[in-house]
Amino acid sequence: MQFPPRNGRRALITGITGQDGSYLAELLLSKGYEVWGLVRHSSSSGTARIDHLLQADDERDLRLRLRYGDLTDGASLWAVLEESRPDEIYNLAAQSHVQVSFEMPAYTVDVTGTGAVRLLDAVRKVAPAARYYQATTSEVFGRAALNPQRESTPFQPRNPYGAAKAMACYVTQNFREAYGLFAVNGILFNHESPRRGEGFVTRKISLAAARIAAGVQRRLSLGNLDARRDWGFAGDYVEAMWRMLQADAPDDYVIATGVAHSVRQFCELVFAEVGLPLTWRGNGLSEVGLAADGRELVTVDADFLRPCDVDLLLGDASKARRALDWQPTVTLAELARMMARHDLKMQSVDNA
Ligand code: NAP
Ligand code: GDD
Asked: What is the per-residue DSSP string for 147-166?
């Protein structure tokens, strides 16, 4: 199938207030795009990650427009598509926390799965020429029998979030095939940054290590220390999203570093960075991470264990490397340093 040449530079981002949305908005604005963002209404402002873009005193702020809407409200999706008439649509909005998806499965499926279908259906009718990016996830692989996981690896999600994302992925593929939409899935492995939500494990660790180093927190409680993830830097991953929509034809891509580390190893990197190298003692629920002076800095708490966890996710992004000329630029040690330094600096600002 032939797709029209790309000449438009207007993008709509759902989830613009999230980690990835903020980096993607920066990237698109730097490329000269007009960016429209869909935001949920809240009684307190939720725009902290993009306030620097909204308050910019150059012409960039004129190219960033926000509209209220919600993936659970189809009418608001139609309205923002009608008004913005985007050339590119990035659907990043989701209830994206795996543990929360066990606590609120129906809501998670409604936002993360059916929400994507609502948006795709509106795109098909209102903006069928737009290029559509669906934020899919390595969580669709779940209990994968083979490592590393690539585009052809069967889906076996292990939680309601992964199941909802699998549905969004399948419907994206289906609309591509049935209606000729330029619709792609980015199957992204974990990606982190100083803007990562505080409930995800890397940021929970970097914030706690900084607070412990500053003397305002005593210890950090975690769940499964053995879980291994393929962690990259969010700034690299939004570049891959953009490249997917610049390709000649729509396709799905795994985006990953190809290296996995455990939660325990990430703790070691971050605590060393704040000047508190860890040693470990015990195992299971009794395992503790000790400071050089014997203080128990990291403990295991059953409250943070999931009903079932994904033990290992490891991606093979060779297709993206070949077809999109994409590769990650930040190692895990560099990422840990970036996050630890950011959170240490936040402590010194807070305590000033
Ligand atoms: P995030 O920080 O949790 O951001 C999620 C965004 O979705 C926020 O802007 C949030 O708005 C918005 N949102 C939540 N529910 C919504 C609803 N009902 N209607 C409209 N907007 C809603 O997630 P992220 O880390 O940036 O990830 C971006 C996307 O990639 C998500 O779809 C996530 O599932 C997926 N993904 C992430 C990773 C990763 O490692 N980060 C890996 C693979 C896939 P509020 O600010 O109002 O909460
Ligand atoms: N959140 C959290 N909190 N996770 C913990 C903790 C803790 O205290 N202790 C151990 N973990 C383990 C989890 O059990 C999981 O195995 C691993 O750390 C990573 O957890 P998260 O950082 O919450 O991320 P995730 O892998 O479950 O999901 C993230 O990555 C997916 C891509 O694979 C999210 O960003 C998803 O939205 C994304 O799709």
From this structure: SSB-TTSPP---SHHHHHHH
User: Is the pTM of the predicted complex or chain greater than 0.85?
Assistant: yes
Ligand 2, residue 98: give the atom nearest the CA. 27
Q: Give residue 261 CA to ligand 2 midpoint distance, Å.
A: 13
Cβ 230 vs Cβ 189: under 8 Å: yes
Q: What is the DSSP string of 257-271?
A: -S--EEHHHHHHHHH
> Using CA atoms, how far apart are residues 231 and 330, in angstroms rounded to an integer?
10
Taking the centre of ligand 2 as the mean of its atom positions, its distance from the CA of residue 139, in whole angstroms, is 10
Answer yes or no: are the C-beta atoms of 136 and 169 closer than 8 Å. Answer: yes
Please enumerate in sequence order all residues whose Cβ is within 8 A of that of 146, keeping only pairs 6 or more positions apart, or say none.
153
Residue with structure tokens 């991606």? 315
Contact between 260 and 332 under an 8 Å Cβ cutoff? The reply is: no
273-279-281 Cα angle (round to 5): 150
Give the strand pairing for 88-91 and 261-262: unpaired
pLDDT in tens, 229-266: 999 999 999 999 999 999 999 999 999 999 999 999 99
- CA atoms of 321 and 340, how far apart (whole Å): 29
Distance 161 CA to ligand 2 centre (A): 12
Q: At which residue do the structure tokens 């669709």 appear?
A: 140
Kindly calculate the radius of gyration of the chain based on its CA atoms and give it in whole angstroms: 20
Q: Maximum CA pair distance of the chain?
A: 66
**Residues labelled as active-site residues:** 137, 139, 161
User: Which atom of ligand 2 sits closest to the CA of residue 224?
Assistant: 10
159-168, pLDDT tens digit by residue?
Answer: 999 999 999 9
